[in-house]
Fold each of these.
Amino acid sequence: MSPFLPYGRQVIEDDDIAAVVDALRGEYLTTGPRVAQFERALAETTGAKHAVACANGTAALHLAARALNLGPGTATIVPAITFLATANAVRLNGGDVIFADVDPNSGLMRPQDLAEALARAPGETANAVFNVHLAGQCGDLAGIRAIARDHHLRIVEDACHAVGTTYTSHNTELCRVGDNSFSDLTCFSFHPVKTIAMGEGGAVTTNDETLARILALDRSHGMTRDTADFVQPDEAFGDDREAYPWYYEMQTPGLNYRIPDILCALGLSQLKKLARFANRRRELTARYDRELARLSPHVTPLARTPNVNAAWHLYVALIDFRALHTDRASVMRKLASQGIGTQVHYFPVYRQPYYRDIDPQLTLPGADEYYRRTLSLPLFPSMSDEDPARVIDALATALKL
């Protein structure tokens, strides 16, 4: 029988292992020089002025919410199709979440979805929008920004699916996800199923020096050893006006969202392979698209955003299970029996019990329609050229097409 294909899998090579071993033999297991090296490399890769690495993508989102003061008395727009962490980052900071609908064929929030969510904001005001990129592609960034700026919203890109994605803006300029051309902050994840893997790991990029400093302080207890920042000179300095070597200050409570050197060693090695991994994902996606065409119209690929060159994190098929007189769970079990793993991205967050209790009357038809049809098929760089055909053959059998 052919090897089992999970929906996602990391690709770890000998040089990645050697990089981690070298870090393990060094002086630092927690925060050390490789953290700063990774931040510089990520900033260069994305085109941002600053990158702040942290423990994981969830930490990145939470740090972003805290940096923008999205706490009690604030409201943030979040699309309903995303992972729990996007909304939870705001709630954990005490802010309110207003869920936006999405395009039922792409899962992405459109400008009109943002506008409709804003109309439901308390007192018709909101403070921020978390613009989620799904499966590797982003939506209408310029359109989202135009509405956000008209309403004085801060913009966070949840790009946990989209490291390596590029797009052409309205003025034909080539942009990179993470360069913050259309946002204040961009959050990334380096979970093993993402385009590059660090085991766990995340980062926030920004072009705002003040925000970068807030992020860096907040990920490490709010603690600073920079003498220029000290506000208690009588505690910090001796009679010789030299800072005490043990002294540090905390002016605002922070978190422990630091990332260790050993993970950044892996991240540095993987980041060098980003272009190769992204291109391979594009090649496999193109093969899937060709194979999937024979299952149309009951099965179609994810709708594509114009002018986006996605570094595909997921390959999503939209399946009309009702028209085919079957159900998703049965199809997933049949595929698993053939050695093919699948997953659903995502159950609409607004329908989770916690959020349903907050707004029990809310319905978002685009998100519900997307969820009803979505199924993520295996996609990772070490798949063979023949694997997409194998997956679609098995899918066709499971659907009796």
Note: The first helix runs from residue 14 to 24.
Amino acid sequence: MRSVLVAAIALGLGGCPHAGPAIPALPGQGGPAWTEISSAHFVMWTDAPAARGKDLIARLEHHRLATLEALDNHQDSAKIFVVALRDADEVGAYVPSEFAAYAMPYGNAARRPTIILAADTGDDQDERSTLTHELTHVVTFSFLPDQPPWFAEGMAEFFATAKFYGATTVELGRPLAHTQQALRAGHMTPMADVFACHAHACMDRKFYATAWALFAYLVNNHLHELLGYVERLAVLPRGATAPTWAEVVPSLPAEQLDHAVAEWLAHGSIGTPRYEIEATVFPTTERPIADGDVLATRALLRASFDRERDPVATHEAIAAALAADKTNVLARMVEWQVAHAVAADDARATAAAHPDDWRAWWLLGYTLQHGPEAKEAHDKLCALAAGDPLVDVPAGFCGPRAAP
């Protein structure tokens, strides 16, 4: 069960919103070059210098290895899509101001776990914790696709405590400075409110600190109960509603946890185990990214963060991406995500242009819905799914009687 404990994460740290000037010109219009950098577990699209991108992807691989080693999880996983924008200003042009970086699960339009972050993220403890936080989050979406926020953020804060000693030793469990400051500044959020929080509006610094305290308390004092809750999350079908803590562990109600966690923080001891990891070098490959893919990436970001806040900007971003490349798979997937429809001829052309991309066949099958052509798209999708862990289809979709 330790392998399942790689749980969800989405860390909110400070950031500043910026307007259009933070977004540079396209490469074809004199802007910075975009590069795809691929490693064993990541595909990064970045407009930062390629050397910076390679350094960042090496750090991501290192963080991933350390996190999985600490959890005794050595299984391989789907490649993670990383959008590494050149700096915090460019990130702030898309991502809400309360986030310095953001992780999205499989259900986003890219149809793979996705992280958006600044390529100039530094390597001090605070910025390293942001990377670890987001990385742990996105790695675990394939294990636990639906977690309640208290669990996601508590696990996030717990694994964000990773402290590295050289290249091969990592320590976990020591609370971060911002967590300690939030706890000193006032009492914890009542556990009943923490369990009930399901919106960004209630996820303030006090919530994050309390979620860390709760999760760390359970790790140190009630690991059996915590693992039992993880087991319930692990068997949930994707998209299902997670059970509440009270439903799974009625012996530890919120009122009891209020007192127990406070007592533990005041008088208990926090374990800080160290883990040895292997010093591994992950080779990378590079290729330039054209304007069409850059525009599709920007459309993905707009659709993810501005679809309701600024629908006009979202539709303009999609239109610009499709004007540059009408068969761009990512752009068409974003169009589907926003409009829930793609013209049949456009879906056919996209599948014809990208026969090895399962998303193109997914798009065609869901566009046509019925008939021999839809069945052919379904069969091609399932053939690609058989050997590709990136394929995000509902359970049973590729069963013997399944059809788009």
Note: Confidence is low (pLDDT under 50) at residues 1-20.
Amino acid sequence: MTLLEANRPTVETGDGTRYLCYLKGRIKRDVGRIMVGDHVVFEATDPGEGRIEEVLARTNQLIRPAVANVEGLFVIFSVAEPLASLELLDKRLVVARLMGLQVELVLSKVDRVDRESSVVLMEKAYRTAGYPVWRVATPLGQGIDAIVSKARVGIWVMTGDSGVGKSTLLNAIVPFQSAQTQELSRIGRGQQTTRWVHLYRLKGYWLADTPGYTALDVTMPSVRHIQWAFPEFTAFTCRFANCLHGQEPGCEVVKARDRNELAAWRYDHYRKLLSQWVKTY
């Protein structure tokens, strides 16, 4: 059973039946805050109502918004006004990779971009790094069908800067959103607002409707994990096995950057992250 709502705990069973629940007393003591995405054991007490008996162990959790057991992220990046931050994008990708999350990059507002070449450059760079990249112009319906048709599993969360078109894209992917909200309100939950996280069941996976900015946090185990988070670097073999791709002689990653075989901004962002660990960089 998956928890759809944490504000007024709403559980959905495998057959799609929903129950408004209350928590068994010891849950708050043992678990603390329950989260959307939690897998729970519950007992039905009345038609449409139940009691949560146990919260199962989480594979991971996001800090803000509070979502547990996340499989992947849609990272929304606006290529037109307001132009999003490439540095923040790469930080999100690094943290997501270290958390073991799948990531799909969505380039939004492609119909309003001034330079098509900049979109092509971004698309090439992130595909080279191993990320699926989608181009969308949501008001025109461009790219929506391609996103919807891809098979996924688990819980997926949208993240992106303010104004990148996250809500518009969500409404395009989940056109039945208002109908689901009204259904829940009829069984006592109240109208859905952007203050709470909610899960929508799509084809094979869940999509989280999350309010505001999504914050990711992870402890960096070692400097080597920063390198691992830039998978395009692995295509090059440096002179020294322990090369940090910075000031070392014979660094093939630096040479590839100079030959424009790697995105210069990706390398710069790698160096900035590296400098937080190694002062000489």
Note: The longest strand covers residues 70-78.
